Amino acid sequence: MGAQLPWPKTLEDFARRFLTGRISWRAVPRQHAITNFGNIISFVLFRDPPFQVELFIIPHDRSSFTSHRHPHVDVIEFGLSGQSMLYIDGQPACSEETVVRWMTGDESTMPVPVGHEAWHYGHGCTPYAFLSIQQWLDGVRPTSVGLDWEGSPSSPEQELLLGQRGTSG
């Protein structure tokens, strides 16, 4: 048996390892892995605290989500498919030209770090999907970044979920 690599200590090291390694399907949680936020669906692909990876699928054209932050989670967003724009602290995370180059295959991936203190929002022009590669902070147990949410909910379904958890901000 080969030598085991040391467990990553930083979000960047974990993201690199996750994206270049093999997914252990045993790491997919058997319970509480899918969350329907109404305008977005979340599926946890990997969870080993403090790290987690969620696949988000937004199946609608002209979608949007409100300004918010995740007070207990640092994230690297990793676009997979579709066209969307993310704004961090009011500024575009990348230029529209970069998004167009990425959509046509002329740009490699665009990982975007979003710190736990950063307010962010976005909108989609097409259906889109992305990975949210996460490091949960302060000993908080990973659930979904859509539940570790400070700001107005983005949908009635999310508002209901946040109210059930008492985490609405």
* Fourth CATH level, the homologous superfamily: Jelly Rolls
- Total domains, how many? 1
Find the CATH topology: Jelly Rolls
How does the major sheet shape up?
A: 6 strands, antiparallel
In terms of quaternary structure, the protein is: single chain
| Rg measurement, Å | 16 Å
Brief account:
The chain has 3 helices and 11 strands; from the N terminus they run H-E-E-E-E-E-E-E-H-E-E-E-E-H. The protein has 169 residues and is an alpha+beta fold.
Characterize the structure shown:
The chain is an alpha+beta fold. The protein has a single domain, classed as Sandwich (Jelly Rolls). 17% of the residues lie in helices and 36% in strands. The strands form two sheets. The protein has a six-stranded antiparallel beta sheet. The chain has a five-stranded antiparallel beta sheet with strand order 7-6-9-4-11, with no helix packed on it. The model has no long low-confidence stretch (mean pLDDT 88).
What structural keywords apply?
169 residues, alpha+beta, Jelly Rolls, six-stranded antiparallel sheet, five-stranded antiparallel sheet, 11 strands, 17% helix, 36% strand, globular
Produce the secondary structure layout.
Blueprint lengths: L10 H10 L13 E3 L4 E8 L2 E8 L5 E6 L3 E9 L2 E5 L2 E2 L3 H8 L7 E4 L5 E5 L3 E9 L13 E2 L4 H10 L4
Antiparallel strand pairs: 1-2, 2-3, 3-10, 4-9, 4-11, 5-8, 5-10, 6-7, 6-9
